[in-house]
Amino acid sequence: MLAGCMLRRTYQGKGRVVGFGDDGRTVIIQHEEIRGLMPAMTMSFKVLGDVSLEGLAVQDAVGFRLVVTPDSSWIDHLETLPDSAVAAHPAGRPDPAYATSDASPLLNRGDPAPPFTLINQNGETIHLSDFEGRAVLLTFIYTRCPLPDYCPLLSRHFQTVQPRLIERYGDQVHLLSISFDPDYDTPEVLQSYARRYTDNTEQWTFATGSAEEIARLARAFGVAYEADGQVFDHNLATALIGPDGTVQRIWRGNTWQPEEVLQAISFK
């Protein structure tokens, strides 16, 4: 877990490239344990400065330096290594992330959002139908996420957009953060987590539920996750469900901005 008082720290890592982002500045690496930060797992990392991804290929062995601040993380040095320097599967298993193992199709724009039964931070049962006639902006998180530009970034985006949504739409838009760590993220834990980001949980709900229900819902939105001790190997998705209950937009990853949400909401 990252210390809250941390300003800037660097970590050394080794792993294998398993994919790339569409922006040309994101590399997905299955890495060995990054001592002092997180266990062996698969994560996507931004590269900054003069770091180039040109010439890299999937399965290349790489060494990297990861910079982590309270608000972001990035790789500022990346080099290829001899193939013998890194195990075939540095996390001890084939890469599980960034695609669901379920055969059901992913949701697309215009599809009906799947109904759900979850538990909010007050221990109350909630359903998608509770928000009928309102737009819902939902995302998937877990409260122990160690990288500031993963789950904490999504929560900060929600924190930024909440007052602007209230100003523009009143109570016609609801925020919903769903934890995929129900064993740890109890309603009490979610209450504490919520206080970091908002004093208005009337229009921003933090939810848990059964592992089966959360997995079903996450798969529909293309969110894959796998527990590795206290942390999760996972990807990111944020979705906008319209007042009619259909999917208006799904943002993959962590690069979307609050202004995009304001522009995407439609009550037609």
Q: Total strand count, please?
A: 14
> How confident overall, as mean pLDDT?
88
CATH class of the largest domain: Alpha Beta
Number of helices: 4
Widest sheet: strand ordering: 7-6-10-9-8-13-14
Outline the secondary-structure elements:
Elements: E1 9-20, E2 26-31, E3 41-46, E4 61-68, E5 73-80, E6 117-120, E7 125-127, E8 135-141, H1 151-169, E9 173-179, H2 187-195, E10 204-208, H3 211-220, E11 225-228, E12 231-234, E13 237-241, E14 247-252, H4 258-264
Parallel strand pairs: 8-9, 9-10
Antiparallel strand pairs: 1-2, 1-4, 2-3, 4-5, 6-7, 6-10, 8-13, 11-12, 13-14
Helix pairs in contact: 1-4
In summary, what is this structure?
With 268 residues, the chain is an alpha+beta fold. The chain has 2 domains: 77 residues, OB fold (Dihydrolipoamide Acetyltransferase, E2P) (Beta Barrel); 148 residues, Glutaredoxin, CATH 3.40.30.
What key phrases describe this protein's structure?
OB fold (Dihydrolipoamide Acetyltransferase, E2P), Glutaredoxin, 2 domains, seven-stranded mixed sheet, five-stranded antiparallel sheet, 4 helices, 14 strands, globular
Describe the structure.
This protein has 268 residues and is an alpha+beta fold. The protein folds into 2 domains: 9-85, Beta Barrel (OB fold (Dihydrolipoamide Acetyltransferase, E2P)); 117-264, 3-Layer(aba) Sandwich (Glutaredoxin), CATH 3.40.30.10. The protein has 4 helices and 14 strands. It has a 7-stranded mixed beta sheet with strand order 7-6-10-9-8-13-14, sandwiched between helices. A 5-stranded antiparallel beta sheet has the order 3-2-1-4-5, with no helix packed on it. Helix 1 (151-169) links the parallel strand 8 (135-141) and strand 9 (173-179). Helix 1 (151-169) packs across helix 4. The protein is globular, with a radius of gyration of 19 Å. It starts with 8 loop residues before the first strand and ends with a helix.
